[in-house]
Amino acid sequence: MYDLIIRNGSVVDGTGAAAFPGDVAVKDGRIAGIGPNLQGQARETIDARGLIVTPGFVDIHTHYDGQATWDPLLEPSTLHGVTTLVMGNCGVGFAPVRPGSEPWLISLMEGVEDIPGTALTEGMKWGWESFPQYLDVLETMPRSVDIAALAPHGPIRAYVMGDRGSDNQPATPGDIAAMKAIVREALEAGAVGFSTSRSILHKAMDGKVVPGTFAAEDELFGIGEALRELGRGLYELAPAGASGEDIVAPAKEIDWMCRLSAAIGRPVTFALLQVDAAPELWREMMEKSLLAVQSGAQVYPQISGRPTGVLVGWQSNHPFAGRASYDEVARLPLAERVTALRDPARKARILQEPIGPKNRISWVLSNNLDRIYILGNPPDYDPGPEMTIKAIADREGVDVAAKLYDLMLEADGRALLMFPILNYSYGDSAAIFEMLQHPMGAVGLGDGGAHCGSICDASTPTWMLTHWVRDRVRGPRLPLEQVVRKLTHDTARLYGMTDRGTLAVGMKADLNLIDLERLILHPPEMIHDLPAGGRRFTQRASGYVATVVNGDVVRRGGQDTGARPGRLIRAGRA
Q: Which domains does the chain show, CATH number per domain?
């Protein structure tokens, strides 16, 4: 007697092998049988005729570090077939923490990852000081999916060095030894690795960059020795220049990353993105990482499955913030604000007024109206040049700023547009397509739980299936089996998770049943469901018939079933 049998599906097992018709049987949270016409009965049988059956998706780049302490669902990631997620990326997190410094860690996360500080302040109950204690707290909470955590450089450096650490002063040998000891303690408790940030764009609310941003090699390599000594764990980083702030830095970064991986014998993973200031630099970094692999290093680029940018709309970023006549109504509820913005006299004033000196994003958007695209429904993250606001305004013979203003008023002021900042230098996704061919490339950078008012890239797994497998028209598509492998086997193995990511007897029973032909990614929506009424974008999908975690169905038709089989993953432990 099985617990669950999924019959008559098209099994895409995560290895990259061709899909095949068959059944999948589950017992005691593990896959107990797989193949055509399995014999036996089950407590529940699901007919998967016309559906694909895949492993659960493993999302390696999220920032649910705070949300995981109060939210058992961790949406929007889990709306898109994710059954395992990794947090603690980019050197930010909430452990270790000295008593009394909790508000500083919240300001660090709020500044770097755009998570409302009021939501974190109200939602988090704390109850830990060390990283192992943080994991202990996470382990006590029921949840729908599995979670894992990296030990973040920023809190560790500040914990050891105090103000010297947060001010990014050089670390002494004693400081480095203390940080290494904390990382080792975290790894022994189950952390899946260590993370750091080298990007000067990652700043706390006080304007200071993340502790460790300017760390010298002795610090970076010294901390990495903890991974070498234990023989496990991954080294994750947001490299300098990854967001285009320094076009010379990435080439230097890849050099030390390769030497680091060789020195500690552990994988290093970094963000690989196309930047407008040097739109071919990503190719050089990809080639260098391939050469490093050939020489024995383990250097894995993390790749985004779609352009990285910001959503544009009245509820998010737009070029009219900072103009006096807009700021007069900026704090009104959306419906009242939209009524005020529809007044022709106010619109005329707003369009003529200058932007305030502190509104950098408004200034950037105002000077890039030719690169703001209609998003549409279903959303298209690979739009052609004819879908820019400027192209539309030119066709209609109207002012481009006025056209954007009117478009944002559609859907009662909830309409959204897209401004791609990275991975779209030439107005298409050709660079992403090439990056996805990297044999060591891992699909990541969805930033689930972060940038709540600007993006919703946690929906990338669904986009990978709808766009790259099924719908792309401006270039070649990717085989279903390759995309599923990128979302499952490759991300799981990168983090040493050998018990998931493929469908085979004995593997963890994490699965998705997907109606690929009817899979739809819906537009992002702004909701206010975080603690203290905090806002965030979410994004739904239709076509996920069921998601299974540890043998239990946690979602049916995209809806939470109330099952809570998720666990904290402790690396190095069964």
A: 57-69+85-307+424-457 (3.20.20.140), 311-420 (no CATH)
